[in-house]
């Protein structure tokens, strides 16, 4: 449900704004509807009798982080069991990129979780083939540029993280970045030092989740900076609580991919006040939809008008979030400059 009233002018401005998404789990774009289609196609029984029951179950109550994240991830992993074949990975990607086209999202970096699939017996080749085909169709049909980020699930054994990196070697050219996601509780970044050292030596761009309000969040952000030596942090909002983190993030030009998403149990965008503080501190912050198939906020273009209103962000500020995203994107200079120029041109024409 959306409870934030949005005026038509804001809606129109945001609709036309060129957009980039840097923090999106492609598996997290699985809507209940697509889940049902794929479950039927693959003959996978669902424990919820119908889509409405699933949606009702997703409105679970849990105290805020970290318990919510743990419960959320259980639902996420249960849902993505319907992804079995290359066609499934193709179809989920094409469905998302069709949505990007509708919402004027010009560029998206798609995180994916290989361990969540290979541990269920899905071959990495099927995952990669489906993602590649989906991206090819997305570019040919809708003109959307994409890149892939291989994410390690931090709550799985460390040796399986290295295995996932090794298994991705034949697909190295198709994957721009390396990240860390899933349950942060008791899974600090330092656990992944060796895997990150290897990913860095293989030329991957590096990011890692520091989810919001996790118990060890400031220590984990520090480890991401100094041990994993990332160039982006996914979320990272709690950095504003510690001046030395703010100083280092700013000095190193690190982009923070914030997610003002809202859940079925929320009535409005979350984290907008802290995102404003991030801006005021001079941090490069972007706005992202994270898991649009599961959150009530949905996809980026759907989410942003309510974020503009709830955060009281001006048109110029909304434009600056998108410029931050294009500038923090893992693309070559020429493409990046073209996206930024297009965004500046839109802002100039909108006279903001
Ligand atoms: N994997 C998928 N969605 C995630 C999230 N919101 N946080 C951490 N890991 C995730
Ligand atoms: Zn995420």
Domain unit count = 1
Q: Helical proportion? A: 40-55%
Determine Rg (CA atoms, Å): 19 Å
* End-to-end Cα distance: 30 Å
CATH topology call: TIM Barrel
Assembly annotation? single chain
What does this structure look like?
The chain is built from 15 helices and nine strands. By secondary structure, the protein is an alpha/beta fold. Helix 1 packs across helix 13 (300-310), helix 8 runs parallel beside helix 9 and helix 14 packs antiparallel against helix 15 (333-349). It starts with 7 loop residues before the first helix and ends with a helix. It has one domain (8-349): TIM Barrel (Alpha-Beta Barrel), CATH 3.20.20.140.
């Amino acid at each position: 449900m959306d409870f934030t009233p949005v005026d038509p002018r804001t809606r129109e401005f945001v609709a036309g704004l060129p957009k980039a998404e840097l923090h999106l789990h492609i598996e997290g774009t699985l809507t209940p509807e697509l889940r049902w289609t794929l479950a039927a196609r693959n003959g996978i029984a669902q424990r919820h009798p119908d889509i409405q029951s699933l949606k009702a179950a997703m409105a679970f109550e849990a105290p805020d982080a970290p318990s919510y994240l743990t419960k959320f991830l259980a639902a996420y992993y249960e849902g993505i069991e319907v992804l079995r074949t290359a066609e499934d990975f193709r179809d989920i990607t094409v469905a998302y990129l069709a949505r990007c086209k509708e919402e004027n999202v010009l560029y998206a970096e798609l995180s994916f979780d290989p361990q969540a699939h290979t541990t269920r017996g899905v071959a990495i080749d099927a995952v990669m083939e489906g993602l590649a085909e989906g991206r090819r169709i997305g570019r040919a049909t809708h003109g959307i540029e994409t890149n892939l980020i291989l994410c390690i699930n931090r709550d799985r054994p460390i040796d399986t993280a290295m295995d996932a990196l090794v298994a991705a070697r034949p697909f190295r050219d198709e994957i721009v970045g390396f990240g860390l996601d899933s349950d942060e509780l008791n899974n600090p970044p330092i656990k992944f030092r060796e895997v990150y050292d290897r990913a860095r030596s293989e030329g991957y761009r590096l990011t890692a989740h520091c989810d919001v309000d996790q118990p060890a969040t400031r220590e984990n952000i520090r480890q991401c900076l100094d041990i994993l030596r990332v160039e982006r942090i996914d979320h990272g909002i709690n950095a504003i609580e510690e001046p030395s983190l703010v100083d280092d993030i700013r000095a190193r030009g690190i982009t923070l991919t914030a997610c003002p998403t809202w859940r079925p149990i929320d009535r409005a965008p979350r984290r907008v006040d802290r995102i404003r503080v991030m801006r005021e501190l001079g941090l490069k912050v972007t706005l992202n939809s994270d898991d649009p198939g599961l959150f009530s906020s949905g996809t980026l273009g759907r989410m942003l008008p309510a974020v503009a209103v709830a955060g009281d962000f001006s048109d110029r500020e909304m434009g600056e979030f998108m410029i931050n995203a294009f500038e923090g994107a893992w693309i070559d200079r020429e493409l990046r400059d073209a996206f930024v120029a297009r965004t500046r041109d839109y802002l100039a024409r909108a006279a903001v």
